[in-house]
Design goal:
259 residues; mainly beta; Gamma-B Crystallin, domain 1; 2 domains; 2 helices; binds 2-acetamido-2-deoxy-beta-D-glucopyranose
C-alpha cells in the first residue's frame, strides 16, 4: 500500500515538475495559464494548465486544488466534464494569485477557461447549456445565425474583450435582443482582460433557454455592461457605468458561485 502510494506520488511529482516551467519563463505576458496548487496561498504540489481539462485525475490533480496563480478567466468544477452539483469556483486575473474559500478546496474535478483560445482579450463569447457556466458550450468569435444543436438550450454565458455581442431570441438575428459588453476590467503591466459573466440569462433580461442567434457589435436597445473609453494599458482604468470597479492594486478575483 505504501509502495503503491509512493509510486503514484513520485510519478505525480515527475509529472508536476515536468509541467512547462520553460514556458513560464519564456511566455509572452498575455498568454493564458493557470497554476493550480494543492495547498492555500500558492503552496504545495502544482500543475500548470494551458488548456481545458475535462478530468483532472488525468493530470493527477483531482480533488486537491486549493489555490491558483494565472492569467485569464478560469472555471473549476466539482465534477468531471465541467459539471457541478455544488459550487463553481472562478478565478479571474492577469498574472495574479488567489486562494479560494474553503468551499472550493479539494473538490475540483474539471477545469476550463472562458474566452478566446488565442489572445487573452480577443473578442469572444462562450455560451453554456447549464446555469453558472456549467455544461456543454457553444463558443466563437464570429456571428452565428443559428446555434445548431444548442438552439434554445443556453442558460449562462461569458463575453470577453472589448466588443459587444448581441444575443437574439430569433434565428438570423431577429426578434427581441440584448447587447452585452464586458462589465469588469483587470489590467496588469499592460495586459488587459475585459469580461462579463452572466450566471443566468435572467441577469440580462432574457428568458432561460431563449438565445437563437449571436451577432458581433451592439444592435439592440437593451445594453448590459459598458464599453471602456480611452487608451488602454497599464495603470488604473475606469468603467463607464456604475459596475464594480477594480482597485488598481487588486489584480485578481477568486470567488465561489453557489449553484
Ligand atoms: C436566414 O437567412 C438566410 C439568408 O438570408 C436564409 O437563407 C435562411 O432561410 C434564413 N433562416 C431563417 C430561419 O430565417
Ligand atoms: C512588465 O512588462 C514589461 C514589458 O513586457 C516587462 O519587461 C517587465 O518585466 C514587466 N514587469 C513585471 C513586474 O512583470
Ligand atoms: C434553465 O434551464 C435549464 C434546463 O434547460 C435548467 O436546468 C435550469 O435550472 C434553468 N435555469 C433557470 C435559472 O431557470
Ligand atoms: C465614453 O464615451 C462615450 C461616447 O464617446 C461618452 O458618451 C461617454 O461619456 C464616455 N464616458 C466616459 C466615462 O468618459
Amino acid at each position: 500500500m505504501m509502495t503503491l502510494f509512493c509510486a503514484i506520488w513520485s510519478s505525480f511529482l515527475v509529472l508536476a515538475s515536468s509541467s512547462p516551467i520553460e514556458k513560464e519563463i519564456t511566455r509572452a505576458d498575455d498568454l493564458r495559464y493557470l497554476i493550480g496548487y494543492s495547498e492555500p496561498y500558492s503552496t504545495g504540489v502544482s500543475y500548470t494548465f494551458t488548456e481545458y481539462v475535462p478530468d483532472l485525475s488525468v493530470v493527477m490533480m483531482d480533488d486537491i486544488i486549493d489555490s491558483v496563480c494565472g492569467t485569464g478567466l478560469w472555471i473549476l468544477y466539482d465534477s468531471i466534464n465541467y459539471d457541478s452539483n455544488h459550487e463553481v469556483c472562478v478565478y479571474e486575473g492577469v498574472n495574479g494569485c488567489g486562494t479560494w474559500d474553503t468551499f472550493c478546496w479539494n473538490v475540483g474535478s474539471s477545469l476550463r477557461y472562458a474566452g478566446s483560445p488565442s489572445g487573452i482579450n480577443n473578442d469572444y463569447y462562450n455560451l453554456y447549456k447549464g446555469t453558472t457556466l456549467r455544461g456543454e458550450e457553444f463558443r466563437g468569435a464570429t456571428d452565428a445565425a443559428d446555434l445548431g444543436i444548442f438552439d434554445l438550450t443556453i442558460s449562462s454565458l461569458v463575453v470577453t474583450g472589448q466588443s459587444a455581442w448581441t444575443f437574439y431570441e430569433g434565428l438570423n438575428f431577429s426578434g427581441s435582443a440584448v447587447c452585452v459588453y464586458a462589465d469588469q476590467h483587470i489590467s496588469n503591466n499592460g495586459t488587459d482582460l475585459d469580461f462579463i459573466h452572466v450566471l443566468a440569462l435572467s441577469e440580462i433580461g432574457l428568458p432561460n433557454n431563449s438565445i437563437r442567434s449571436v451577432k458581433r457589435g451592439c444592435h439592440a436597445e437593451r445594453v448590459v455592461g459598458a464599453p471602456l473609453n480611452g487608451t488602454r494599458g497599464g495603470g488604473k482604468t475606469s468603467m463607464t457605468s456604475a459596475t464594480e470597479e477594480m482597485d488598481a492594486m487588486s489584480i485578481t478575483r477568486v470567488h465561489t458561485v453557489h449553484v
